[in-house]
Specification:
CATH superfamily of the domain at 449-605: P-loop containing nucleotide triphosphate hydrolases
Radius of gyration: 30 Å
Shape: globular
CATH class of the domain at 449-605: Alpha Beta
Number of strands: 21
Number of helices: 23
Strand order of the largest sheet: 11-12-10-13-14-9-15
CATH architecture of the domain at 449-605: 3-Layer(aba) Sandwich
Structural class: alpha/beta
Length: 690
């Protein structure tokens, strides 16, 4: 018997090999994937509004019959095709138009039923809908699935209509639902008052009523959270069972390092240092996430942790995502003089120097190695690795992050991020880690003044930047990252660099940096800017992470609407790194609701955690964490923002279950193990053997 999770989508009636490729692009590879491809919204078609009751300016749904249709080209632009359809019901008539979709002619036949979803407008004296969503009601099956009920509306694979997709989902439910296994035991469902899986899948796609749809949503969200939490809880339990290193946390090296600092630690930094001391003194391996806003002083805390490990005879690996950042960290730790033996390991270090570093690491002659992903190479073998620090861990893949701890015997791990996540969501995403927060900036730092300009008055923004340069300070002008066609490509940044150099900023020294430059060239430009042989840096978002230039006091972000909110906040954090008043100027003409919300958040908030909350509200968790992240983007339907109570219940159930059956070996948990390995195959070793 073919199980739905094994059966390729091409074998579902109505699909076939050619259509299957379209579904695969939307992440639908099997019949079970289709059953778990949930609607994005519902239309209440239990009672349609008649044409005579439609309201101008509102988006509404109406059921009509096609009376006539025609196509013509615009008299203004001959290549512009217009499809016009006259429709009506017992109470009136309505005109619908679609632009540049000539293929619609084959679908719209007089006499067919039609469901329209769109905004009603008055065009002259005629009622009209422009480009409404539509569905054709051709037979009884269409009537059953699309009329007189709550009707699901899906994100559509390319070239597939709502009508076709509903039929395919109905076909999958009718033929394969009895073969799909419920991974939640009766006890778990009963304790949490949840529907069984079959009833949930039916009522998430074709709900009998709103109450059942809500119950189905709750059940499937719980399953989402439960499956997501199990590996996290399991990782935490396995870690707690391991024997780690009990570090010597008090000693002269820590004292010498802290006394070498030219500033007093903030109260938040001191609190986090105590949390790390407690972890490192314990024989349980530390796994701690250190969250802190840009410029909050996370690196100093990490360096104190490094000194604790080193004074006990252990080595420290400090991994960062870019060479520029690695060099910056190395330069700062270098200020401590000969306190420790240290090395910088990046891709651009020459072979002779690399070989020496590899040998010194292996022989235990180096206490601290700061590097990029070059630290993950097979040639890097530590004699006595005791602490790993990973900065901006989301820049590394899941597999990459696992390689470094494997180079030691249960070393402590400190992960740092300047992308703050509200604590409740951090528990969701990093449920296997303990969490520390630095929520205070060093004394003497002034808030960054954030201003919004439009394209018409961007000369005023340039004037503000010039004033800073005249004072002897430095500035950035940032252009959007090289991405989709709607974004500026790199020639835009290059062109603007040439223009600014010849015109607006001809009296100043300009540099250009972007991701297509070789790393060696990027480092050269950044060094020149850092050494103040450049006044103004024209850049893409390569600046986003960790660059620390205290004399940079002004940033202009062009086309700010093309950047994400967290990205804008990260960029803003590149200025204001000293006690000099700094400004961040956003230039944007966008009037979209989402862009306006981002600009308003930047103007109103400076706290990274608040910014993160706003970003989550605007984009939702899937987009916030990104598709490449092994995190909340894994959730198919659950939303921690609105279902935190359900998430907590799912986590409690995961802890309860794994306490009793850590490898899911009990008969009643075998279906759950199968589902878990199906969803997260990379956790097979963890689930099967711990």
């Amino acid at each position: 018997m073919n199980k739905p999770h094994d059966l390729s989508i091409q074998y579902l009636k109505g699909i076939g090999p050619k259509r299957a490729k379209v579904f695969t692009k939307s992440g639908i590879n099997t019949v079970e994937d289709l059953l778990y491809y949930f609607p994005r919204r519902y239309e209440d078609r239990t009672n349609f509004v008649s044409i005579s009751k439609l309201k101008l300016g509102e988006i509404q749904t109406v059921k009509v019959k096609i009376l006539a249709m025609g196509q013509h080209n615009s008299w203004r632009r001959r290549s512009f095709n217009i499809t016009e359809v006259a429709v009506g019901d017992d109470t009136g008539k309505l005109s619908c138009v679609w632009f540049n979709q000539p293929y619609l002619k084959q679908y719209f036949k007089p006499g067919l039923g039609l469901i329209l979803y769109g905004k009603l407008e008055l065009y002259g004296s005629k009622l009209q809908m422009s480009n409404p969503e539509f569905e054709i009601i051709a037979d009884d099956t269409d009537e059953e699935l699309s009329v007189g009920r709550l009707v699901p509306v899906y994100r559509l694979p390319e070239g597939i209509s709502q009508r076709s997709l509903r039929r395919l989902v109905k076909n999958a439910l009718d033929n394969y639902l009895p073969k799909i296994s419920d991974c939640l035991t009766y006890e778990v469902r009963n304790r949490n008052n949840l529907l069984n899986l079959a009833k949930s899948l039916i009522n998430i796609h074709f709900p009998d009523n709103l109450d059942l749809q809500n119950q189905a949503y709750t059940r499937l969200s719980f399953e989402d959270f439960f499956l997501f939490q199990l590996p996290l809880v399991l990782r935490k339990l396995n870690r707690e069972a391991k024997q780690g290193i009990a570090h010597k946390i008090e000693g002269s090296l820590v004292d010498k390092y802290t006394s070498s600092l030219s500033f007093e630690l903030t109260a938040a930094q001191k609190k986090v240092v105590q949390e790390i001391k407690s972890d490192m003194a314990s024989s349980r391996p530390m796994q701690r996430l250190l969250q802190g806003d840009v410029g909050s002083g996370k690196t100093v805390v990490a360096n104190i942790a490094a000194m604790m490990a080193i004074q006990g005879g252990y080595q420290v690996a400090f991994m960062v995502p870019t060479e520029i950042l690695a060099e910056q960290h190395f330069a700062k730790i270098n200020l401590t003089g000969n306190l420790i033996k240290k090395a910088l390991l990046t891709g651009s270090v020459d072979k002779k120097e690399k070989d020496k570093i590899f040998k010194d690491i292996k022989d235990g002659k180096l206490d601290l190695v700061i590097g990029t992903h070059a630290l993950l190479g097979e040639s890097v073998k530590f004699k006595n690795l005791g602490l790993i620090v990973i900065d901006e861990q989301h820049k590394f893949g899941v597999g990459q992050r696992a390689l470094l701890p494997a180079k030691g015997v249960s070393p402590d791990v400190l992960i740092m991020t300047a992308t703050p996540i509200p604590r409740t969501l951090a528990i969701t995403l990093y449920g296997d880690l303990d969490i520390s927060i630095i929520n205070e900036l060093p004394s003497g730092r002034l808030p960054i003044m954030t201003l919004l300009f439009n394209q018409k008055n961007k000369q005023d923004a340039y004037e503000l930047a010039k004033q800073e340069l005249i004072k002897g300070n430095q500035a950035y002008i940032v252009y959007p990252v090289i991405e989709e066609s709607y974004a500026l490509d790199i020639s835009g940044a290059k062109k603007m660099y040439a223009e600014l150099k010849s015109n607006e900023f001809k009296d100043f020294r300009l540099g250009l940096i972007h991701g297509k430059l070789k790393e060696e060239e990027q480092n050269k430009v950044m060094s020149a800017f850092k050494n103040k042989t450049l006044d103004l840096l024209v850049s893409t978002t390569i600046l986003e992470v960790g660059i620390d230039i205290p004399s940079a006091t002004c940033m202009i972000i062009e086309h700010a609407e093309r950047f994400g909110l967290s990205q804008l906040h990260q960029l803003r954090g590149r200025v204001g790194r000293s006690s000099i008043k700094s400004s961040c100027i956003l230039i944007s003409d966008s009037d979209s609701d989402e862009a306006k919300a981002r600009m308003n958040a930047m103007l109103n908030y400076h706290d990274g955690f608040k910014i993160a909350e706003e970003d989550l509200k605007i984009r939702g968790p899937g987009e916030f964490f990104g598709r490449e992240q092994h995190g909340l983007s894994e959730l198919k339907i659950g939303n921690p923002l609105t279902q935190m109570h359900l998430l907590k219940k799912a986590r409690e159930e995961a802890i309860r279950l794994l306490d009793i059956d850590p490898h899911l070996e009990a008969r009643q948990n075998l279906l759950l193990k199968e589902k878990l390995l199906q969803r997260f195959p990379e956790y097979e070793k963890l689930i099967l053997v711990g």
